[in-house]
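As a warm-up, study this chain.
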Amino acid sequence: MRKIPILLVTSFLIFACSNDDNASDSEPQLMDQSANTDTGEPFPCENGMAGIYPCNGLDLVGRVNLADMDAGRGNDIWGWTDSASGKEYAIMGLDNGTAFIDISDPNNMRYLGKLPTATVSSGWRDIKVYQDHAFVVSEASGHGMQIFDLTRLRTISNPPQTFDADASYDGFGNAHNIVINEDTGFAYVVGTDRGDAFNGGAHFINIQDPKNPVGAGGYGDNGYSHDAQVVTYNGPDADYTGREIYIGSNENVVIIADVTDKENPTNISSVSYPNRAYTHQGWFSEDQQYFILGDEVDEIDFGFNTRTLLFDFTDLDNPVLHDSYAGPTTAIDHNGYVKGNEYFLSNYTAGVRILDISGIADKSISETHFFDTFTSSNGPQFSGVWSVYPYFESGNIIVSDINSGLFVIKKSN
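Now compare it with the structure written out below.
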């Protein structure tokens, strides 16, 4: 078994709130310091610990440090499974580019290389995958969208390499996030400049031919979207069956729009909630009846434990707040994703938390697993886990940590 070299990772992160629209009013950053040392070996979760990491029911499979990827800070993460080989790859956003890691052999994870940022470095980068291509956006000024053919990773014999993009799209400059509806082959770039044609809302891009993206309009009637999900709707509201539905987390409200007709997107409804601070990101339950939302700053502003908001979207014209769940710590919630009856929450200093949402209709939510990558604190700080990707068939769960890099974890046997 090849070990990842022992490294001491120390990151001093100092990020200030900004009123500059080019920063998309991204989430405020606080000063923090983290120091973790790890060999990269697999560690089972035993007696509440996996090596140096607190855990419950999640083993450490392996990890790759930021220093291994020649980066100072991590951010987003997504995954790709090669349909030809079945190999699994982690795609991790870094301050200075996008890293590609072959995680298919947990005893010999391979950092294959990096696609450098298109312009300058930035602490914010986001990636999604469609038809064996990665689509990358960033808050970096003038960055646009990079497109990378992931099948190139099949033949990397001398890693790490520095890659170039296969194509790019410059219909916008900076962006906070990208959403892709794989059913339709459209990308939705959000969190762009507030003064652009769509007010920082959504840019529609046809990516059905991945290397030849074509702008297809946009939607900005509800202003800036920090994050979004777009689905081909098959939920309980028969009025919208088969329509392409956009759910935007728009800083102080959740908006629902019909974007089926790209030339004529229409607003459906919106919903807010008490003790609102920053409406950040959310995800549908698999039956598309409930929408699970994180407000990123409410733990700071109101002193809550981690608060997860649950909306009933049975009637898209009349969404309502259904319930809220309070976690066991005061850590801030970030991105969350649903797989089956579980909600995988990236919880900054409290790591990854898995919630059982099978009882959501009865307002019965419970935490079943966790893995804490940030060992020095569970407080409301912008450090630790940025995002989580739980969709590999192997059961591998990939995690991006701002301070420490990539973690691969898995449910204990």
